[in-house]
Structures are given as structure tokens and as C-alpha cells.
Amino acid sequence: MKPLITDEHRAQLLDNGAAAARGEKRDPLPVVKLFTLDAHATWLLTELDPGDGDTAFGLIDLGMGTPELGHVRLSVLESIRGPRNLAVARDLYFTPRRRLSEYARLARADGSIND
User: Fold this and answer.
1) What pLDDT score does 1 carry?
2) What is the residue-wise DSSP string for 35-103?
3) Which of 15, 40, 78, 81 is 20 to 30 A from 87 via CA?
4) Contact 107, 38 (CB under 8 A)
């Protein structure tokens, strides 16, 4: 199984997380998009807590029409299985087109994360 994030993703997520920990006001592009193949959940992640290297921040859409900004642990995402026992996967073709705040605004308007 492919890892949820690459070393390159981890480095960028940690850099964004360190900036946030220093109190820098940023509106980064999402670094990685994760999703469930069989449960309609999506995560657009922008940062990783440098203190634990596991707690990510981004836009979370659990497929119930209420996407929100929040935190999730990568270790939890790695353990999730959908109704057909499929794991969370990384969108290998994802290229961010907007800042996180814009994805969040659009997701709240229509109830889901769309590219």
C-alpha cells in the first residue's frame, strides 16, 4: 500500500505547521488530498504539527454535507476502512488550484470539497 503522504509532502506540511506554531498568518495551498474510495470522505491537508509529526490540519469533509477546518491524525487516517474495507488513499493527481480558505468557502457553500 502507498503511504498517505510522501517525504516531500511531510516536509512541506511540517514547514507550514512550524509557521503556524510561530503564529505566522498564512493561507497555504493544500499540500495533499486524501479520500476514501468507498465512503465519500475527503481531507485537504495544509500542515502537520511539528511537535508530534502526526496531527494534521486542513479542510475535512466526512461526506455528510458539513465540511469544516480542523485537525486529524495521520495515524487515524491510516487505520480507517470504508464499508467495503477500502483504506484512505492519496489523490495522486491532485494539484491545488486555490488557497485553503477558498476551498473552505466553496465547500461550505455547496456542502462538499470540489476541485
Assistant:
1) 55
2) EETTT--EEEEEEE-TTTS-EEEEEEE-SSS--EEEEEEHHHHHH-B-TTSPBEEE-TT----S-HHHH
3) 15
4) no
